[in-house]
Amino acid sequence: MDWKKEIAISHLIKQGIAEIDVNGLWLNTLPEVAASDEQLRNLEAYLGYELNYQYRSFLSYANGWRAFSGYIDIFGVDDFFGRATSSSCD
User: How many whole angstroms separate alpha carbon 51 and alpha carbon 1?
Assistant: First the structure.
């Protein structure tokens, strides 16, 4: 999977939605900064198993994405530890 391309396309779609969402009904957020190899290894050690390859690959480009689709989040590393991500609404 070409995550750079997929993330860019998703961002463009969200931008288009934001342009027509004059009442601000939908959160317009950006993905979190990529998770480091150390963060991913620590998460896998905490969970006790290896992450799914595609999800691990996604996290290496975007460490989660709050309000990715409407009010649906893609969890980042910190979510597994019960820590909130630092993203804010645009």
Answer: 16
Q: Where are the domains of the chain?
A: 3-80
Strand partners, 69: 72
- Distances, alpha carbon 75 to alpha carbons 16, 17, 46, in Å: 23, 22, 15
Asked if 28 contacts 17 with a C-beta cutoff of 8 angstroms, the reply is yes
pTM over 0.70: yes
pLDDT per residue, tens digit, the chain (90 aa), is 999 999 999 999 999 999 999 998 989 999 999 999 999 999 999 999 999 999 999 999 999 999 999 889 999 999 999 876 554 444
